[in-house]
Amino acid sequence: REQVRAEVDSPAFLGGLFDRRGVAMLHPAKLAWGLKRACLRLGVRVHEHTPGLDLARSGAGIAVRTPYGRVFARRAALGTNVFPSLVARLRPYTVPVYDYALMTEPLSAGQLASIGWRNRQGMSDGAHRFHYFRMSSDHRILWGGYDAVYPYGGRLDSALDQRPETFLKLAQHFFEYFPQLSGVRFSHAWGGAIDTCSRFSAFFATAYGGRVAHAAGYTGLGVGATRFGAEVMLDLLAGERTERTGLRMVRSRPLPFPPEPFAWAGISLTKRSMARADSHGGHRDPWLRAMDRLGFGFDS
Fold it and tell me: Structural domain tally of the chain?
Protein backbone atom coordinates (compact mmCIF):
# COMPACT_ATOMS: atom_id res chain seq x y z
CA ARG A 1 0.00 0.00 0.00
CA GLU A 2 2.70 2.46 0.97
CA GLN A 3 4.69 1.86 -2.22
CA VAL A 4 1.66 2.44 -4.44
CA ARG A 5 0.60 5.55 -2.55
CA ALA A 6 4.14 6.91 -2.84
CA GLU A 7 3.55 6.92 -6.61
CA VAL A 8 -0.07 8.14 -6.65
CA ASP A 9 -1.73 8.86 -3.33
CA SER A 10 -5.26 7.55 -2.99
CA PRO A 11 -6.86 6.01 0.12
CA ALA A 12 -8.54 3.52 -2.22
CA PHE A 13 -5.24 1.87 -3.14
CA LEU A 14 -4.38 -1.32 -1.23
CA GLY A 15 -1.56 -2.55 -3.45
CA GLY A 16 -0.61 -2.66 -7.08
CA LEU A 17 1.43 -3.99 -9.98
CA PHE A 18 3.79 -1.56 -11.73
CA ASP A 19 4.50 -2.70 -15.30
CA ARG A 20 7.36 -0.55 -16.58
CA ARG A 21 8.16 -2.42 -19.82
CA GLY A 22 5.14 -4.40 -20.98
CA VAL A 23 2.86 -1.46 -21.78
CA ALA A 24 3.10 1.97 -23.38
CA MET A 25 1.16 5.23 -23.26
CA LEU A 26 0.01 6.84 -26.49
CA HIS A 27 -2.63 9.15 -27.93
CA PRO A 28 -5.09 6.95 -29.90
CA ALA A 29 -6.29 9.70 -32.25
CA LYS A 30 -2.74 10.74 -33.09
CA LEU A 31 -1.90 7.10 -33.81
CA ALA A 32 -4.85 6.84 -36.21
CA TRP A 33 -3.93 10.11 -37.94
CA GLY A 34 -0.32 8.96 -38.29
CA LEU A 35 -1.37 5.62 -39.78
CA LYS A 36 -3.61 7.46 -42.23
CA ARG A 37 -0.72 9.70 -43.34
CA ALA A 38 1.50 6.64 -43.83
CA CYS A 39 -1.20 4.93 -45.90
CA LEU A 40 -1.69 8.00 -48.09
CA ARG A 41 2.05 8.21 -48.73
CA LEU A 42 1.93 4.59 -49.93
CA GLY A 43 -0.87 5.36 -52.34
CA VAL A 44 -3.74 3.87 -50.35
CA ARG A 45 -7.10 5.46 -51.15
CA VAL A 46 -9.09 6.34 -48.02
CA HIS A 47 -12.84 6.97 -48.26
CA GLU A 48 -14.12 8.24 -44.93
CA HIS A 49 -17.85 8.59 -44.23
CA THR A 50 -18.55 5.83 -46.78
CA PRO A 51 -20.49 3.02 -45.12
CA GLY A 52 -20.20 -0.50 -46.45
CA LEU A 53 -23.72 -1.85 -46.92
CA ASP A 54 -23.15 -5.46 -47.94
CA LEU A 55 -20.74 -7.93 -49.55
CA ALA A 56 -21.06 -10.10 -52.63
CA ARG A 57 -18.83 -12.36 -54.68
CA SER A 58 -17.46 -10.76 -57.82
CA GLY A 59 -15.65 -13.18 -60.08
CA ALA A 60 -12.58 -14.37 -58.20
CA GLY A 61 -12.87 -11.47 -55.76
CA ILE A 62 -15.32 -9.60 -53.59
CA ALA A 63 -17.49 -6.49 -54.01
CA VAL A 64 -18.48 -4.11 -51.22
CA ARG A 65 -21.61 -2.08 -51.90
CA THR A 66 -21.63 1.53 -50.67
CA PRO A 67 -24.17 4.37 -51.14
CA TYR A 68 -21.93 5.67 -53.95
CA GLY A 69 -21.27 2.49 -55.89
CA ARG A 70 -19.40 -0.78 -55.45
CA VAL A 71 -15.74 -1.31 -54.51
CA PHE A 72 -14.04 -4.38 -56.01
CA ALA A 73 -11.04 -6.21 -54.56
CA ARG A 74 -9.46 -9.65 -54.59
CA ARG A 75 -9.69 -9.78 -50.80
CA ALA A 76 -11.45 -7.79 -48.04
CA ALA A 77 -10.50 -7.30 -44.38
CA LEU A 78 -13.37 -6.25 -42.13
CA GLY A 79 -12.56 -4.17 -39.05
CA THR A 80 -16.10 -3.01 -38.29
CA ASN A 81 -15.68 -3.02 -34.49
CA VAL A 82 -18.98 -2.06 -32.85
CA PHE A 83 -20.96 -1.83 -36.10
CA PRO A 84 -22.82 -4.92 -37.38
CA SER A 85 -20.59 -7.17 -39.45
CA LEU A 86 -21.19 -7.34 -43.19
CA VAL A 87 -21.06 -11.11 -42.67
CA ALA A 88 -24.49 -11.71 -41.16
CA ARG A 89 -23.64 -14.98 -39.41
CA LEU A 90 -21.00 -13.17 -37.32
CA ARG A 91 -23.33 -10.51 -35.92
CA PRO A 92 -24.49 -12.53 -32.86
CA TYR A 93 -20.88 -12.71 -31.62
CA THR A 94 -20.66 -9.03 -30.63
CA VAL A 95 -22.83 -6.53 -28.79
CA PRO A 96 -22.28 -2.80 -28.22
CA VAL A 97 -21.64 -1.34 -24.79
CA TYR A 98 -21.27 2.35 -24.07
CA ASP A 99 -18.23 3.53 -22.14
CA TYR A 100 -17.99 6.97 -20.52
CA ALA A 101 -15.25 9.29 -19.33
CA LEU A 102 -14.72 12.62 -17.57
CA MET A 103 -11.85 15.10 -17.82
CA THR A 104 -10.99 17.46 -14.98
CA GLU A 105 -9.96 21.06 -15.35
CA PRO A 106 -6.15 21.56 -15.21
CA LEU A 107 -4.84 20.87 -11.72
CA SER A 108 -2.86 23.50 -9.85
CA ALA A 109 0.63 22.82 -8.50
CA GLY A 110 -0.84 22.39 -5.03
CA GLN A 111 -3.47 19.94 -6.22
CA LEU A 112 -0.86 17.92 -8.09
CA ALA A 113 1.33 17.83 -4.99
CA SER A 114 -1.60 16.58 -2.88
CA ILE A 115 -1.88 13.39 -4.96
CA GLY A 116 1.82 13.02 -5.76
CA TRP A 117 1.22 11.87 -9.33
CA ARG A 118 4.63 12.93 -10.63
CA ASN A 119 5.48 10.20 -13.18
CA ARG A 120 2.33 10.30 -15.34
CA GLN A 121 1.66 6.55 -15.17
CA GLY A 122 -1.47 5.20 -16.79
CA MET A 123 -3.57 3.50 -14.14
CA SER A 124 -6.50 1.16 -13.74
CA ASP A 125 -8.00 -0.49 -10.69
CA GLY A 126 -8.41 -4.25 -10.38
CA ALA A 127 -12.19 -4.50 -10.10
CA HIS A 128 -14.44 -6.34 -12.53
CA ARG A 129 -16.17 -3.02 -13.22
CA PHE A 130 -12.97 -1.05 -13.33
CA HIS A 131 -11.93 2.57 -13.68
CA TYR A 132 -9.05 3.76 -15.86
CA PHE A 133 -7.30 7.08 -15.38
CA ARG A 134 -4.54 9.10 -17.03
CA MET A 135 -2.76 12.42 -16.59
CA SER A 136 -2.83 14.64 -19.68
CA SER A 137 0.01 16.90 -20.79
CA ASP A 138 -1.81 19.95 -19.39
CA HIS A 139 -2.29 18.33 -15.95
CA ARG A 140 -5.88 17.19 -16.31
CA ILE A 141 -7.04 13.78 -15.09
CA LEU A 142 -8.99 11.63 -17.53
CA TRP A 143 -11.27 9.36 -15.49
CA GLY A 144 -13.45 6.73 -17.15
CA GLY A 145 -14.86 3.24 -17.11
CA TYR A 146 -17.01 1.36 -14.60
CA ASP A 147 -20.53 1.85 -15.91
CA ALA A 148 -20.54 0.01 -19.27
CA VAL A 149 -24.09 0.33 -20.59
CA TYR A 150 -25.71 -2.16 -22.95
CA PRO A 151 -28.69 -0.71 -24.86
CA TYR A 152 -31.62 -3.07 -25.24
CA GLY A 153 -31.53 -4.74 -28.64
CA GLY A 154 -27.95 -3.63 -29.23
CA ARG A 155 -29.09 -0.39 -30.86
CA LEU A 156 -26.50 2.24 -31.71
CA ASP A 157 -27.61 5.81 -31.06
CA SER A 158 -25.43 8.92 -30.84
CA ALA A 159 -27.82 10.25 -28.19
CA LEU A 160 -26.38 7.59 -25.87
CA ASP A 161 -22.95 9.25 -26.05
CA GLN A 162 -24.16 11.54 -23.25
CA ARG A 163 -25.48 9.95 -20.04
CA PRO A 164 -25.72 12.37 -17.10
CA GLU A 165 -26.44 9.68 -14.51
CA THR A 166 -23.23 7.86 -15.43
CA PHE A 167 -21.22 11.10 -15.39
CA LEU A 168 -22.53 11.81 -11.88
CA LYS A 169 -21.58 8.31 -10.74
CA LEU A 170 -18.09 8.65 -12.20
CA ALA A 171 -17.65 12.02 -10.46
CA GLN A 172 -18.68 10.49 -7.12
CA HIS A 173 -16.19 7.66 -7.58
CA PHE A 174 -13.46 10.13 -8.54
CA PHE A 175 -13.75 12.00 -5.26
CA GLU A 176 -13.80 8.72 -3.31
CA TYR A 177 -10.45 7.91 -4.92
CA PHE A 178 -9.04 11.43 -4.57
CA PRO A 179 -10.73 13.25 -1.66
CA GLN A 180 -7.75 15.67 -1.68
CA LEU A 181 -9.17 17.08 -4.92
CA SER A 182 -12.57 17.98 -3.48
CA GLY A 183 -13.91 20.96 -5.40
CA VAL A 184 -12.13 20.21 -8.66
CA ARG A 185 -14.47 20.70 -11.62
CA PHE A 186 -14.89 18.57 -14.72
CA SER A 187 -14.47 20.42 -17.99
CA HIS A 188 -15.41 17.60 -20.40
CA ALA A 189 -17.65 14.53 -20.39
CA TRP A 190 -18.25 12.11 -23.25
CA GLY A 191 -19.06 8.54 -24.15
CA GLY A 192 -19.19 6.15 -27.05
CA ALA A 193 -19.86 2.56 -28.03
CA ILE A 194 -17.30 -0.22 -28.08
CA ASP A 195 -17.86 -3.82 -29.15
CA THR A 196 -17.57 -6.74 -26.82
CA CYS A 197 -17.82 -10.49 -27.18
CA SER A 198 -18.43 -13.18 -24.60
CA ARG A 199 -14.74 -13.83 -23.95
CA PHE A 200 -13.75 -10.12 -23.84
CA SER A 201 -10.92 -10.47 -26.37
CA ALA A 202 -10.67 -10.43 -30.14
CA PHE A 203 -11.86 -13.26 -32.34
CA PHE A 204 -11.33 -13.94 -36.04
CA ALA A 205 -13.20 -15.53 -38.92
CA THR A 206 -13.12 -15.95 -42.69
CA ALA A 207 -15.98 -15.97 -45.19
CA TYR A 208 -16.69 -16.17 -48.92
CA GLY A 209 -14.21 -18.98 -49.48
CA GLY A 210 -11.37 -17.17 -47.75
CA ARG A 211 -11.85 -13.95 -49.69
CA VAL A 212 -12.99 -12.08 -46.56
CA ALA A 213 -11.36 -11.95 -43.11
CA HIS A 214 -13.02 -10.50 -40.04
CA ALA A 215 -11.72 -9.36 -36.64
CA ALA A 216 -13.87 -7.99 -33.82
CA GLY A 217 -14.61 -8.29 -30.10
CA TYR A 218 -11.70 -6.20 -28.79
CA THR A 219 -13.79 -4.93 -25.85
CA GLY A 220 -12.10 -1.56 -25.59
CA LEU A 221 -8.59 -3.00 -25.81
CA GLY A 222 -8.01 -2.47 -29.51
CA VAL A 223 -5.50 0.39 -29.59
CA GLY A 224 -2.58 -2.00 -29.37
CA ALA A 225 -4.28 -5.25 -30.32
CA THR A 226 -5.66 -4.16 -33.70
CA ARG A 227 -2.16 -4.20 -35.20
CA PHE A 228 -1.96 -7.86 -34.22
CA GLY A 229 -5.50 -8.36 -35.53
CA ALA A 230 -4.58 -6.84 -38.90
CA GLU A 231 -1.60 -9.18 -39.22
CA VAL A 232 -3.82 -12.16 -38.41
CA MET A 233 -6.30 -11.11 -41.10
CA LEU A 234 -3.51 -10.73 -43.67
CA ASP A 235 -2.27 -14.24 -42.82
CA LEU A 236 -5.79 -15.63 -43.14
CA LEU A 237 -6.40 -13.88 -46.46
CA ALA A 238 -3.09 -15.21 -47.79
CA GLY A 239 -4.06 -18.72 -46.70
CA GLU A 240 -0.83 -19.03 -44.73
CA ARG A 241 -0.29 -21.18 -41.64
CA THR A 242 1.71 -18.98 -39.29
CA GLU A 243 2.44 -18.78 -35.61
CA ARG A 244 -0.40 -16.29 -35.35
CA THR A 245 -3.01 -18.39 -37.18
CA GLY A 246 -2.08 -21.38 -35.02
CA LEU A 247 -3.07 -19.63 -31.81
CA ARG A 248 -6.11 -20.95 -30.00
CA MET A 249 -7.67 -17.47 -29.86
CA VAL A 250 -7.49 -17.34 -33.67
CA ARG A 251 -8.73 -20.89 -34.25
CA SER A 252 -11.64 -20.68 -31.79
CA ARG A 253 -14.57 -18.32 -31.40
CA PRO A 254 -16.42 -17.06 -28.36
CA LEU A 255 -19.97 -18.17 -27.69
CA PRO A 256 -22.58 -16.04 -29.48
CA PHE A 257 -24.99 -13.87 -27.52
CA PRO A 258 -28.59 -15.10 -27.33
CA PRO A 259 -31.45 -13.13 -28.89
CA GLU A 260 -33.44 -10.58 -26.93
CA PRO A 261 -34.72 -10.41 -24.29
CA PHE A 262 -32.26 -13.03 -23.10
CA ALA A 263 -29.16 -10.99 -24.07
CA TRP A 264 -30.31 -7.94 -22.11
CA ALA A 265 -31.30 -10.03 -19.08
CA GLY A 266 -28.03 -11.98 -19.06
CA ILE A 267 -25.84 -8.90 -19.46
CA SER A 268 -27.75 -7.03 -16.73
CA LEU A 269 -27.47 -9.96 -14.34
CA THR A 270 -23.76 -10.33 -15.08
CA LYS A 271 -23.14 -6.63 -14.36
CA ARG A 272 -24.96 -6.91 -11.02
CA SER A 273 -22.96 -10.01 -10.11
CA MET A 274 -19.70 -8.26 -11.00
CA ALA A 275 -20.61 -5.31 -8.81
CA ARG A 276 -21.47 -7.71 -5.98
CA ALA A 277 -18.13 -9.49 -6.39
CA ASP A 278 -16.26 -6.17 -6.28
CA SER A 279 -17.98 -5.23 -3.02
CA HIS A 280 -17.34 -8.66 -1.44
CA GLY A 281 -13.61 -9.08 -1.83
CA GLY A 282 -13.81 -10.61 -5.32
CA HIS A 283 -16.03 -13.51 -4.26
CA ARG A 284 -17.82 -14.78 -7.36
CA ASP A 285 -21.43 -15.81 -7.00
CA PRO A 286 -23.00 -18.89 -8.67
CA TRP A 287 -23.98 -16.87 -11.75
CA LEU A 288 -20.42 -15.73 -12.48
CA ARG A 289 -19.03 -19.20 -11.82
CA ALA A 290 -21.61 -20.66 -14.22
CA MET A 291 -20.66 -18.07 -16.84
CA ASP A 292 -17.00 -19.03 -16.47
CA ARG A 293 -17.79 -22.71 -17.00
CA LEU A 294 -19.79 -21.86 -20.12
CA GLY A 295 -16.99 -19.76 -21.57
CA PHE A 296 -18.48 -16.36 -20.76
CA GLY A 297 -16.80 -13.83 -18.51
CA PHE A 298 -13.45 -12.44 -17.46
CA ASP A 299 -12.16 -15.73 -16.04
CA SER A 300 -13.14 -17.87 -19.04
Answer: 3
Q: Please report whether residue 57 resides in a domain.
A: yes
Cα separation of 1 and 8, whole Å?
A: 11
> Residue 183 and residue 239: Cα distance in Å, rounded?
58
Tell me if the pTM is above 0.85: yes
- Calpha distance 129→166 (Å, rounded): 13
User: Do 126 and 155 belong together in one domain?
Assistant: yes
Query: Is residue 299 in a domain?
Result: no
Q: What is the pLDDT of residues 99-150, one digit of tens each?
A: 999 999 999 999 999 999 999 999 999 888 999 999 999 999 999 999 889 9
Query: Going along the chain, which residue ranges are E strands?
Result: 54-58, 61-66, 69-73, 76-78, 95-104, 123-124, 131-135, 141-145, 186-196, 203-207, 212-216
Cα dihedral 178, 179, 185, 188 sign: positive
Alpha-carbon gap, residue 186 to 155, rounded angstroms: 29
Burial class (CB in 10 A: 0-12, 13-18, 19+), 20: exposed
Strand partners, 141: 135
